[in-house]
Amino acid sequence: MTDSADITQWLDAARGGSREALDRVLGALYQELHAMARRQLAGQHEQTLDATALVHEAYLKLIGNHGATFEDRAHFFAYAATAMRSVVVDHVRQRLAQKRGGDLERVTSLPDDADGALPLDEDLLALDSALDKLALVDPRLAQVVELRYFGGLSELEIAALQDRSERSIRRDWQKARLFLLASLQDDEQAA
Q1: How do the domains of the chain map onto residue ranges?
Q2: Which of 48, 66, 137, 160 is the most interior residue, by most CB within 10 Å?
Q3: Within 13 Å and on the Cβ side, how many CA atoms surround 174?
Q4: Does the predicted model carry a pTM greater than 0.70?
C-alpha cells in the first residue's frame, strides 16, 4: 500500500504539471478506481463498457484536462468520479442514439440505494441532467451524489475523503435526493 504522504507529494507534483506524478497517483490508486468502476457497472449485461475500459477512459479525461489540479486524495477521487460520470453518460447517450434513433424517454425515478450498479439507460441520462441542475444550486451536494452514484462510495467513505462527519454527508445525501427527485418530477410534468 502506498503511503498517503507519497500520494500527497505526487498530487503536488501533478498540480505543477508533472505527467509522471499523475501516472504514479493513478498507479497507486488504480485498484480503488477499478473497484469504483466495478461497483458502478455491476450487473450490466452488455459488454461494451467494462470496469477496465471505464477506468482507462476516465484516466484519459484526467490527463486531457490540463487545467485540472488535485489538492489532495479527496479532490482526486471527486474528479475521478466526475470523469467516470462523463464517460458513462457519453456511453449511454451513444448506445441509446444507435438503438432508438436518438429518442429518449423521460423518467421520474431515482434509485433508493446507490450501493448497487447504475442502470445504463434513460434513467442515468435523466439523473445526469438533474445533477447538472443541482450543481448550479449547490456544488457540494452534487459532489456527494457524484461520489455515491458515479464513484460508488459509501457515506462513510465520502466523509473520510472530505474530512467531514458521516452524519453531515447523510444530510447532504438526503437533501440532494429530494432536489433530484423534484427535478425529475418537474421534467416529467414539463414533457
Answers
A1: 4-190
A2: 160
A3: 6
A4: no
